[in-house]
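Marked as duplicate of an earlier ticket. Keeping the data here for the record.
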Amino acid sequence: MAKSLLDDRALIPSFHLPAREGAVFDSLDFKRKRNLVLFFSTYPPQDFLLALDQASAQIRAQNAEVVFICPMEPSVVENIHRMHRLTYWILSDPTRAVFSKFIQAEEREEVAALFITDRFGGIFFQVVVSRVEDLPSSSEVIKSLMLIQSQGL
């Protein structure tokens, strides 16, 4: 069964991955500036991706960025982005280099995970599940971000 490799309140490992159109996402660019909502999935769950996209304006209003990281080739990630016109970061991690810093799972195991950080990179909330349906809803993510903001993190 998959599990997180990180303790609550631990700092997330720094990472960088290629993004769309030659851009590079570097987690250090957000440290001390924005909270991160990191969503990992071994497959692209359309309903969850669209729900996050619908909530992305509210999430950004809470000083946060949404990042979806999946172990697929860049061309697949680009197609997902183009097909759904998503407004947040979607990153390709085909070698699972970043995935394996956060999550311990068997090679073919289906996994979905959500990590919410404060602006210092500390893990405020985390969950690793086998079904994306078991992840918190976008409204629960927003509530967590509001709590982070209320604590000045």
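See parent ticket for discussion. The longest strand covers residues 35-41.
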